[in-house]
Write a structure and sequence with these properties.
The chain is of the alpha+beta class and about 230 residues long. It contains nine helices and six strands.
Length: about 230
């Protein structure tokens, strides 16, 4: 009986401390001179998706990253993700903001998002999907600029030059906020893509259009929103 005690103790020790096993990480060197430690990264075309050690993910243009190296410092795995609706983890929020600082128009996105009560990471993800951060982008349907404002939306928010980054982002955020207030985040993104009429046609749900469903899923994934 006594000979089994060390084995039992070892199993109990692993059960108690298994969650604290060090995890590998990576150091992301931004061209701005800042350094960010992340869990891993994933390339998506000209975009880099950074998986944060403290949960969630952020995006940035790949050209803003000078290099990525293995982090020699071992980090413990983060605590389990809080239930949906709980306050965000402070470390995750700090890491997200640090990564956002390296993206184009980060200061405009942050200040405008804060002013209108919209998650800046959601706005950043939407801009990436809509225009790839190209302020001169124009779609065949006439959508313009970073947040791809339709002419009617630009007129509604009195945007004189929809290709001006600040004016475009502010109007886009205002429009997105109005949709979120009415439909919630997921359906608001669908309405931003397919139009409010399409959402109303399907009783306030995400329309069963493959393009729209992929659009919503991609933005939520890039923004780290479940």
């Amino acid at each position: 009986m006594h000979s089994r005690l060390p084995i039992v103790f070892a199993v109990a020790t692993l059960a108690l401390f298994g969650a604290a096993v060090p995890a590998s990480a990576e150091l992301v060197f931004l061209t701005s001179g800042r350094t960010l430690s992340v869990k891993s990264h994933q390339a998506d075309g000209e975009t880099m998706i950074l998986m944060l050690r403290s949960g969630g993910r952020v995006i940035c243009d790949a050209s803003l990253i000078a290099r990525i190296e293995a982090d020699e410092v071992a980090y413990p795995e983060p605590a389990p993700v809080a239930p949906l609706g709980a306050e965000p983890v402070a470390a995750a929020d700090q890491d997200a903001r640090a990564a956002l600082d390296g993206t184009p128009y980060a200061e405009i996105i942050s200040s405008m998002s804060e002013a209108h009560g919209v998650d800046p990471m959601l706005v950043s993800a939407l801009i990436q999907v809509e225009s790839g951060y190209r302020p001169s982008a124009k779609s065949p349907r006439g959508a313009m600029g970073l947040m791809q404002l339709m002419p009617s939306t630009a007129r509604e928010y009195k945007v004189r030059n929809p290709f001006d980054p600040k004016a475009n982002i502010e109007a886009g955020i205002k429009h997105l906020k109005s949709l979120i207030d009415r439909f919630g985040v997921r359906v608001a993104l669908a309405a931003y893509n397919a139009g409010e009429g399409a959402v109303k046609k399907f009783n306030g749900a995400v329309p069963p259009y493959r393009e729209t469903q992929n659009y919503v899923s991609r933005i939520l994934a890039l923004a780290g929103i479940n």
